[in-house]
Amino acid sequence: MENYKRTTTCGALRAHDAGKSVILNGWVHRKRDHGGISFINLRDRYGITQVVVDADASDKLKAVADELHNEYCIAVTGTVRLRPDTMKNPGMPTGEIEVKAEDIIILSRCAVLPFQIEDENQAREELRLKYRYLDLRTQGMQERIKLRHEVAFAVREWLTAQGFYEIETPTFIKSTPEGARDYLVPSRLYPGKFYALPQSPQLYKQILMVSGFDKYFQIARCYRDEDARGDRQPEFTQIDIEMSFVNREDILTLIEGLFGYVFKKTLGVTLPEHFVRIPYDEAMERFGTDKPDLRFGMEMQDFSEFVPNSTFQAFKDALAQGEAIKQEAQARGITKQGGGVKALVVPGKADYSRKQIEELEAAAKIYKAKGLAWMKVTQDGALEGGAAKFFAEQADAIKTKLGAKPGDLILMVADSNRNIANTALGAVRSKLGKDLGLCDPKRFEFAWIIDFPMFEYNEEEQRWEAAHHMFTWPQEKYHATMEHDPGAVKGDLYDLVLNGFELASGSIRIHDPELQKKVFKIVGFSEAEAEKRFGFLVEAFKYGPPPHGGIAPGLDRLVMLMAGQTSIKEVIAFPKNTFAVSPMDECPSEVDQKQLDELHLCIKYPDK
Hints:
- There is one protein chain.
- The protein has an eight-stranded mixed sheet with strand order 6-9-10-22-21-20-17-11, sandwiched between helices. The chain has a five-stranded mixed β-barrel with strand order 1-2-3-5-4.
- The protein has 15 helices and 22 strands.
- It is α+β, with helices and mostly antiparallel strands.
- It has helices at 59-67, 125-130, 132-135, 139-161, 202-210, 248-267, 280-287, 313-331, 354-365, 395-402, 418-435, 513-522, 527-540, 555-562, 593-598, and strands at residues 21-34, 37-44, 47-53, 73-82, 97-108, 165-166, 184-186, 194-196, 215-223, 235-244, 276-279, 301-302, 340-346, 373-377, 383-384, 409-415, 446-450, 455-458, 463-466, 493-498, 501-508, 548-551.
């Protein structure tokens, strides 16, 4: 190899290099033969250079060139020369030059390809993942993995400049309830006992604050045994951050500065100094989701005021039932919203067909809506179609309140549970944003969602649960009343949302052991159970814990959105498929009986 080791890369040569003797190493990206002349596009990580085997080349060199196929790995020795003016390629960084080949050595040959190595691979996903090493050669994947590296480096660079230490936490930990199932690792030395892979470094980073490190971060690997989807994987990476002696605003400001630096350095994009802040309840009312896409408007509005004077019984029943449920819950000391009717105006889409409206209705029904009512504003300003006949006498008031104009489509969802009405119509809004091309992947619209509910009531189990996790600080004004009315409590919680995706979640943490005991009690954790699950944290908090808080932006989702993609598989080198399987190395796989015996395990297969 020493005689054929590259002296430059395939992306480095320019016009001023003309006349230089060079050695290039790389893969045959394309080969074309024209009238006894061979043109070879040679590719490596850095770019593509055109190599030419001239008509007057030796028979030996021509024979080697004739043998070449796509993805052969070769070494080329030659001289850089300027391309003729008519053959220059301004769209290619090396487009002014070519290398006249004097020798070509085949370093390795390539079998018949399962798909062509294009700029963007159009092969089906399963094939791409099976031959991931080939998929990773495509320009798109190369650029996205490069972007991921640059983002991670920029994160480290900026946080280090702010005084943070990068500290590793264990990947073999005690299993603790954090919302998803743990991945468990059996212990060979201690039969019947297991390590868990961390769903997040949550408890350890809090202990680091007790340890006095003040500012911690880690680009942390996390593991959750849950169903996969486009923006979720069994193993993922987050930018884990924790700080002492801070309040919510300190953390929000820190992340705004971090992302401002990362976007400017890696994409050349300038973000606003501060991101919009939206309370959770307001986000649900306006967008029907706690991760709203702000790249387009089309906000939801309350339609309930028009129901009492209408003849639409289904809407009236929804509000009446919701009020009854609300009153019954209040009698049990549970705060509930009651029913709601929400409306959405779709500008200029009065021409939507019944089939298109049924597709929107299907999206709403996924979120438990009983149906999707609609009416259209005609060119003369009347309401027609669908539910229009029930609201004819209020047409002018409805148009004024909703801001509906001739040619607009009005969509409505009613339910005895206001949250269902909001969520279902919010799903319709999201679908419309995609269908109408309103989600520009090159726009980045951030929002902080704040003031989340601290607790959620589990109707099936008749008990309260932590909405996020049990170590969240309840906002001060609820401390005296939270045991009597958990449903009203707002936590010092915050999510960062980007283009309709939750990008980060965090909170100010509980540092008062007595307050922590109250939270454990509300969610049904006895002191004994808390000691069993979180004993080491509870014990640490006896020794002067500082007030602290943190956040954990998802690195995979961040890079996905920066790259204009919709799946994190596009920014992970070796992801799993939708079934949490790796087609390339066929994991998870069976192990031999000897390994199971060493771990004192036996397999119990599910009944067929």
